[in-house]
Design a protein that fits this description.
Blueprint lengths: L63 E3 L11 E3 L10 E3 L7 H12 L6 H12 L7 H13 L4 E5 L5 H9 L5 E6 L2 H13 L7 E5 L2 H4 L8 E6 L6 H11 E10 L15 H15 L3 E6 L5 E6 L3
Parallel strand pairs: 4-5, 4-7, 5-6, 7-8
Antiparallel strand pairs: 1-2, 1-3, 8-10, 9-10
């Protein structure tokens, strides 16, 4: 949910829902024998089958990890599970057996549609498309409502108002007395967000709209005065937004950064554009900051969350 030209990101068309009655095939790995082990002296040599002895089962595919790509890397490092380097991981990819990659994508699509959007969010999403705004995904909206509710967030900052989908989603999880501060450079977009809030039944006093550049507004907000910060604005400024968010949050507060996977392009070492570099820097900072407990949610285009640890 950001103004045109802010993030430079585009989301592909959603996959059509699976046909009713269709079944997803789950990979079945060979059963490992449970009988006594044979000694090396009596074991059947490789390539030969002993008298009455069954051939050893093939070894199942192991998960593989795609690690964060340093900006000066020549290619993407791939290591077996359990042997991952300590530097920040951007995404985890499973080495699916042949034919199962499609099933994995179907499961992700179903998870994205798990929380059905109501008429308010559907209408806001349509208005976003009409005005050229890339809205936050349905899965991320559901996650924001959950996070606001789980943390009982009374004071929330939204960096990037857009058409108001994130605004409404956050308000739905906040207590009645909660106040949301939403920052965006486009007053017209904030007008769309106000309409979405009215449609959702929230009074005007629940939201404080501030029109301006976030990096100029955030320094005026109080240290440790907020419970939740959503970042969904100019992607190249994510590292600086993260610094401000950690300053604003109380112990136990949560920062959520949307679109950190950028449709997987951040793991492509050949990419050197500012967006890829900024996202890799942001993920690395979250993973290495001892003040934070990080979590990457694979919803929409990646929602990177971190809780501020109590000290």
């Amino acid at each position: 949910m950001s103004a045109p030209g802010l993030a430079g990101r585009r989301r592909g068309a959603a996959r059509p829902p699976a046909a009713r009655g269709a079944h997803t095939r789950i990979p079945v790995y060979p059963r490992v024998p449970t009988g006594p082990l044979r000694s090396p002296a009596t074991a059947t040599p490789p390539g030969r089958r002993g008298s009455g002895a069954a051939a050893p089962p093939p070894e199942p595919a192991r998960p593989r990890v795609v690690d964060d790509v340093p900006d000066d890397a020549a290619d993407t490092d791939v290591a077996p599970a359990g042997e991952r380097p300590d530097d920040a991981a951007v995404t985890v990819a499973l080495a699916d057996p042949a034919g199962e990659a499609g099933a994995t994508e179907q499961l992700r699509a179903r998870a994205e549609r798990f929380g059905d959007e109501d008429e308010v969010l559907t209408a806001a999403r349509e208005r976003a498309a009409e005005h050229g705004i890339v809205p936050i995904g349905a899965g991320a909206c559901a996650a924001l409502t959950f996070l606001a509710s789980a943390t009982r967030a009374r004071h929330v900052v939204e960096i990037g108002t857009g058409a108001g989908l994130g605004t409404v989603s956050l308000l739905r999880g906040m207590p009645r007395e909660g106040l949301l501060t939403s920052i965006d450079t486009e007053a017209a977009h904030q007008g769309l967000a106000r309409r979405a809030c009215v449609d959702a039944g929230f009074p005007a006093g629940r939201v404080r709209m501030i029109t301006g550049r976030a990096l100029e507004v955030l320094p005026r907000l109080s240290d440790a005065g907020y419970d939740l910060v959503l970042v969904d604005a100019l992607t190249v400024e994510y590292p600086r937004y993260l610094e401000e968010a950690v300053r604003l949050l109380r112990p136990g507060g949560v920062v959520a950064l949307d679109n950190v996977l950028w449709t997987g392009r951040v793991t492509d070492a050949a990419r050197r554009e500012a967006i890829s570099t900024a996202l890799r820097e942001t993920v690395r900072a979250v993973r290495t900051d001892e003040r934070l407990a990080p979590l990457l949610l694979p919803v929409s285009d990646g929602l990177l969350c971190a809780s501020v640890l109590a000290r």
